[in-house]
Design brief:
Number of helices: 1
CATH architecture of one domain: 5 Propeller
Shape: globular
CATH topology of one domain: Tachylectin-2, Chain A
Largest sheet: 4 strands, antiparallel
Strand order of the largest sheet: 1-22-21-20
Oligomer: single chain
Helix content: under 10%
Structural class: mainly beta
């Protein structure tokens, strides 16, 4: 793959929203019936607490902003809930005439900075509003995955549902640069519905390499040429976030081919330190890749065009 960067679309300075003063993270693309491409995005406030809103763009020219949400479509939960310290976008699934928005919920902790588990909300009005289906997580803690089960990607196939997600990996949390940081990779499990998932650990699907890497996070997945293809976020101690590419014949175990991703940081500017949280979207013969920039999305959200 070869991508041509088209620039930044927006950052926290683009809109006057009290709940958006920091990071813009994890864009998800949904083409609405009115022809607008709605990017659901995690907007973080000045305390780095995330809420889910949206930015509408022209699908033929994503640099042209058509509108944005004045209020979150999904807000933080009640004290003690799994979303009480932030709620982040993860994946969109169209199924049975409904739009399912999978999300990750953060809770602040003492001995580790946070725990993060996963839930789902549904929309029956083309993404204008969402209703959470449960106050407890779809992906809750299980043996061996005690603090992180987040960022699910869901694909229906043959009446069953693939679920890929990020989870803890041994030896777990570590200290670096005066902070506690998690180690996590990609797991897979099968489900019989989009909202009823087994309470068992998943199977390893995409592993880390070496001691420097410590995170495989939010990706974008599609099927093409008989393969499951995945562009994902790869986190390392030395470089922060970059993008990687992997593919699989069965969707269960992926082969890493990171040198084929075709997109890296810029020499200067908003995405010169990090690129992360990709979202692939094809429209009218053109394929876009939306992604986030420096400092975990403080640099904003931009996009690139697939050239070959």
């Amino acid at each position: 793959m070869q991508w041509r960067k088209r620039g930044r679309i927006f950052d926290s300075g683009s809109f006057d929203l009290p709940w958006f003063r920091g990071n813009a993270m994890m864009p998800l693309a949904h083409l609405r019936a009115d022809g607008r491409l709605r990017l659901f995005v995690t907007f973080c406030d000045d305390r780095n607490v995330g809420r889910i809103g949206w930015v509408d763009v022209d699908p033929a020219d994503p640099s042209r902003i058509l509108g944005h949400s004045a209020r979150p479509v999904l807000d933080t939960g009640a004290p003690g809930s799994f979303t009480d310290n932030g709620i982040l976008t993860a994946y969109l699934l169209r199924h049975g005439g409904r739009l399912y928005l999978y999300h990750s919920g953060y809770q602040a902790c003492v001995n580790v900075p946070y725990m993060v588990f996963s839930g789902v909300a549904v929309s029956d009005d083309d993404g204008d509003s969402f209703t959470s289906l449960s106050p407890v997580p779809l992906l809750d803690r299980v043996a061996g995955e005690a603090t992180v089960r987040s960022a699910p990607m869901v694909l229906e196939e043959g009446g069953r549902f693939h679920v890929w997600y990020t989870s803890d990996v041994s030896p777990g949390w570590f200290d670096a640069d005066g902070k506690r940081k998690p180690r996590y990779d990609l797991k897979h499990l099968w489900a019989d519905s989009p909202v009823d998932w087994p309470r068992t650990p998943g199977q390893p699907s995409l592993p880390l390499r070496g001691d420097d890497e410590h995170g495989i996070a939010k990706g974008t997945l599609w099927k093409e040429g008989g393969l499951y293809r995945l562009i994902y976020s790869l986190r390392s101690a030395s470089r922060g976030y970059r993008l990687g590419y992997a593919q699989s014949r069965d969707g269960l175990v992926f082969e890493r081919r990171d040198d084929e991703v075709g997109l890296d940081v810029s020499d200067q500017g908003w995405d010169s330190e990090m690129i992360a949280f990709p979202e692939r979207y094809a429209f009218g013969g053109t394929t876009w890749l939306f992604y986030c920039g420096n400092r975990y999305g403080q640099g904003g959200v931009g996009y690139a065009q697939l050239m070959e």
